[in-house]
Design goal:
single chain; 204 residues; alpha/beta; 5-stranded mixed sheet; 8 helices; 52% helix; 11% strand; globular
Length: 204
């Protein structure tokens, strides 16, 4: 049986991109577990994650959009991966990192542990760096008296929209897109809608 686990941190974020990815994989809706909870909360304290554990059987496969959906802490990531592969004996697939962890290895061996630790740490660093840049960008624009939403670039331009599409696929949040393209939330929402339509049709 195949399952997926999707997570966003706050109500202001969107889970649509993750849902589209799981739709492409043809994962049944009843096998999709989704919740709004911070990645810093241990997986053992996440209600939907616990529900998923209750239905898992040996040989099942769980899909994640990325390592960050499972957790933000490297230690918690490793503990959770070992729990899923050793105790539940399920296969884990992280789409963004193109990483597959099989239960046949009885969890992470020394080499895999090192590799996974590096990847998890880099994913956490990348996310933290993006968040820091977003905060700094917003603070700088506020100090300069710049209001988001002023005309900066025309996303109808093919090259610019292609860049926007790639940023969206990479997991950029609404706030991050607003900062980079200097557009209001309604405008970003409009372009995100276009991205979803393209992604769903597979016109990449």
């Amino acid at each position: 049986m195949i399952y997926c686990y999707m997570r966003i941190s706050t109500h202001s974020q969107q889970c649509d991109r993750q849902e589209l990815m799981m739709e492409e994989l043809k994962i049944p809706k009843e096998n999709r577990f989704q919740e709004i909870i911070s990645g810093t909360v241990k997986s053992s304290k996440r209600p939907e994650f616990e529900k998923m554990l209750e239905v898992l059987q040996q040989g099942d496969t769980i899909y994640f959009e990325s390592l960050s959906r499972l957790g933000r802490s490297t230690v918690d990531l490793i503990d959770t991966v070992n729990l899923l592969t050793k105790k539940y004996k399920v296969k884990l697939i992280f789409l963004k990192e193109s990483l597959t962890i099989n239960p046949e290895g009885h969890g992470l061996d020394a080499v895999s542990n090192l590799f996974f630790t590096i990847m998890a740490a880099m994913a956490q660093f990348e996310r933290d760096l993006t968040s820091q840049r977003t905060r700094e960008g917003l603070a700088a624009k506020k100090a300069m008296g710049v209001k988001l939403g002023r005309k900066f670039c025309e996303l109808d331009d093919e090259e610019m929209f292609n860049q926007f599409y790639e940023d969206w696929k990479s997991g950029w949040s609404y706030d991050e897109l607003m900062v980079k393209y200097e557009k209001s939330r309604p405008t970003i929402s409009k372009y995100v809608k276009r991205c979803k339509e393209i992604f769903y049709r597979g016109e990449e």
